[in-house]
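look at this fold:
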Amino acid sequence: MDNKKLVETVAANLGRSDEDVSKLLEALAGVLRTRCGEMDCVYVPGFGTFEPKKRNEHVMVQPSTGKRMLVPPKVVVGFKVSNVLKAKLK
C-alpha cells in the first residue's frame, strides 16, 4: 500500500478529509523522527514500539571490485509489534 492509498483508506474509516489525514500522518512521522533522533523509544498503545538502535561504523567490501569502504555510524529504527496487535492478526 502506498502513501496515497493509506491516506484514502484512513480518511474513509475516520470520516475525515484526505488533507487532514495527510497532516496527521506527517505529524506522526515528525514526532518519530525527532524522538528517535534523540534515542528515545516511542510507544503507540495497541500498535507497537519504535525503538532507535545505533549502528557502529564498519568496513564494507564491494563484491564486484573488491574495494574496501568505511560505512559511517547511523541510527536505524526498529519496530516491535504489541501483543494486542499480534493477537488480532492471528
